[in-house]
Each structure stands twice: as C-alpha cells, then as structure tokens.
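User: tokens in, sequence out, please.
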C-alpha cells in the first residue's frame, strides 16, 4: 500500500460515489475552505495502483505556531479493514507531524444506530456499529462522546426519509397534520421558486431573522456568496414567496367556499332537528366565514404593501452522495400560518425523486425526544414525514504533538474563567 496525495480526479472518482460520500468531502468544499483561509490536502492510499482510501483534510493555524487538522465527515474508507485503517492513520500522523500539526479530528459519515421515527432503538440494538468504533479506539483515537446536542463540529443526529416508494405512496404514511399541510399549503397564494445568486440577500436575511428567533448562529451574506461561487452545482435554493394577486384570488375563493358551506348548514338546520352537534357545526361554520373575511382584508392590505410579492421563507439544499440534504431553512415569523417550510420541503422531496437520490436528509436534530425540550420543534416537523432518526458514530480526535496537552489545558482554563 502507498500513502500519497491524490489528484482532484482521483479523489472525485473514489469519493463521490462511495457509500460514505458527503458534501463535506468534495472538491467544492475544498475550494470554499481554501478561500476562507484553510490549507486543504487531498490524501489517500493506493493498493495495486487503485485508490482504497481518501480524505479531504484541512490545516488551520492554532497556538504556538502549530496547527489543527480536520477531516470533515472523513475519512472515506473501509473502517472494518483494520490493516488499511492502521496504515492510513500511521501515515497520516507522519504527514501531520511534518506540518507541525498537534491534533487530527474526524467525524466519519458512518451510522452508529438507525432508529425509528420516534427515536427508539431498532432490532434490540443488534445493528449497532461497535466494530468501527472499537477499531478507532484501539488505534488511539479519543471519542468526543455520544452527545445528544449539537456541540461538535458536525451534527451527530439526523432525520432521514428513504425514497423506496413513489411519492404518492410515501405521502400516505406521513402524519395526518403533515399531509394536511402539504395539501393546503398552496391554497393560500404561496409559491416556490428556485433561487439564483440574486436571491442570496433575501435568503440570508430570512436565515438571520430565524437564527435570532431560535438563538443560533447564522452565516453572513459574504459567506453564502463564496459558498455559491464554489458550490452552486451542489446547491439548490428554494424561495417561498407570496404572490399578491394569487393570495387575493385564493382568499376570495376560500371565502366563497366558506359562505356556501355556511348556507348549507343553514339549510340543514331548517330541515333537521337541531341538536348540539348541528349547533356546533353552525358555530364553526360561522367562525370560518369571519376568519376568511378577516383574511381577505389582510390579502388586500398585503397587495397594497407588496405589489411585487414578498419572500417569506428560504431553504438551502445540498446534494451529498446518495442524499439530498435540507441544510438550512427559515421563515418570517409574521407569515408562519402560511407554513412555507412544507411547500419548500415538498419541492425538495419531489426534486430528490427526480434526481434519483436514495434518501432525503432533513439533517440536524438533537438526540432528545422530550416534547418539553427547547429544541424539540426542529424534530417535531421532520418526524411528521415518518422517516428514521439516524445516530452517527460521532467525533474522534487523535493527538499528534505535545502542543495538544497545552491546547486542551488552555481550553479548560477558559471554561473555568467563563463560569
């Protein structure tokens, strides 16, 4: 076996169709990270002139003139081949030490447990991937831990939907509320378009207001422009927007429907014995008419204020191996009743089928399935699609230099000071 730097073609040919393929292990991400200041390397192992292992690994400056090395969602290799894993690790350590690196961090795209939609362990945990975990530990890798929340470089918990049936059949297995939202979302004047570079401003603004509301960090417009420049062939931007004319027309139609149904209830009350059930039906019917009248006034005002329409939601999706990922999404809170996320998810799933993906990956959730958890909402919406909770194997690090201990001591001191 030979440890070597790979050409972009060698890397692409091996990694892009590998079962562990991830957008984070791509030439596109390599070029983005290079512009952002990292020093990237494409490294691998060849056996009989054939690539059998590969990784994109990033070098970033740290303390005392030394460096951190990180292989996002790497390495890409057969982790059950202990000889290959050991050879790659040993050679990579030599390479990193020559570059004054003191730590290697990896977070392989390896499933540790596949769980039910509710987060329950399947098959009495017989499919748990202990072999890969143990092989890494035996080589000296230190596991971050089976963390529940998103406190590592990459998410450890994801929610995925396998596209093993046609979409209409798949929909019948979605939750009742999810099916209803998908059926009614377009009856409110809501439309979805594919975003272009000109839409990055709107997307970033929507992500920003969402991040502030949900208390997480958002990327800058400059970052998304760089990302678009290098990764546009992997990206799709979905913009949910309200068309004022369609919104107004749909609302008028819904009001007319409500009025007709209310009249039908009146006729029923004339010809039938009026009991509590019919009284309740009339009460609900009248309330619906009033709601639609109020909505009509809102639609008229919306058209006046936004004659060209308004973007109310955004979704950034990425092609990643055999998955189509919903990387980031957001909406303007004022328009949450239009449920723009469902319209964008609908388009995302349809496109995933068209492009032949095996999975739709709704991406990050936490490992807490308690309805009282503050992050439960990000899981609850995705759960309605009746997919699987996926628990990845997690983050590992390997010491490659004495600065490792100094660095960790400094982190501990900082955490104590913050307390």
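Assistant: Sequence out:
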């Amino acid at each position: 076996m030979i440890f070597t730097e790979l050409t972009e073609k060698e890397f692409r040919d091996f990694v892009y169709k590998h079962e562990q393929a991830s957008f984070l292990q791509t030439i596109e991400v390599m070029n983005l990270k290079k512009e952002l200041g990292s020093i990237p390397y494409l490294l691998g192992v060849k056996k009989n002139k054939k690539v059998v292992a590969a990784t994109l690994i990033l070098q970033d400056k740290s303390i005392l003139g030394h460096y951190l090395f990180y292989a996002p969602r790497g390495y890409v290799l057969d982790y059950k081949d202990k000889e290959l894993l050991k050879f790659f690790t040993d050679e990579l350590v030599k390479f990193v030490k020559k570059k004054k690196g003191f730590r290697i961090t990896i977070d392989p795209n390896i499933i540790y447990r596949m769980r039910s939609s509710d987060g329950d362990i399947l098959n009495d945990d017989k499919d748990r991937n202990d072999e890969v975990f143990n092989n890494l530990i035996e080589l000296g890798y230190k596991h971050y831990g089976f963390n529940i929340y998103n406190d590592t470089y990459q998410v450890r918990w994801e929610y995925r939907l396998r596209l093993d049936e046609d979409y209409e059949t798949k929909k019948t297995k979605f939750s009742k509320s999810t099916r209803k939202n998908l059926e009614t979302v377009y009856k409110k004047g809501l439309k979805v378009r594919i975003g272009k570079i000109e839409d990055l401003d709107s997307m970033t603004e929507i992500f920003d207001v969402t991040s502030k509301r949900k208390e997480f960090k958002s990327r800058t417009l400059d970052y998304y422009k760089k990302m678009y420049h290098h990764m546009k062939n992997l990206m799709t931007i979905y913009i949910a927007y309200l068309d004022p004319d369609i919104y107004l027309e749909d609302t008028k139609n819904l009001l007319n429907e409500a009025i007709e149904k209310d009249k039908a209830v009146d006729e029923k009350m004339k010809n039938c014995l009026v009991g509590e059930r019919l009284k309740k039906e009339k009460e609900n019917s009248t309330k619906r008419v009033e709601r639609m009248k109020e909505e009509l006034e809102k639609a008229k005002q919306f058209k006046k204020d936004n004659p060209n329409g308004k973007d109310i939601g955004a979704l950034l999706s990425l092609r990643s191996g055999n998955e189509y990922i919903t990387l980031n999404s957001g909406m303007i809170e004022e328009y949450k009743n239009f449920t723009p996320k469902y319209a964008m998810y609908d388009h995302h799933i349809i496109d995933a089928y068209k492009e032949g993906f095996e999975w739709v990956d709704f991406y990050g959730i936490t490992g807490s399935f308690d309805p009282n958890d503050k992050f439960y909402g990000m899981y609850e919406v995705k759960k309605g699609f009746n997919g699987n909770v996926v628990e990845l194997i997690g983050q590992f690090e390997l010491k490659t230099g004495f600065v490792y201990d100094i660095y960790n001591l400094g982190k501990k001191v900082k955490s104590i000071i913050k307390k």
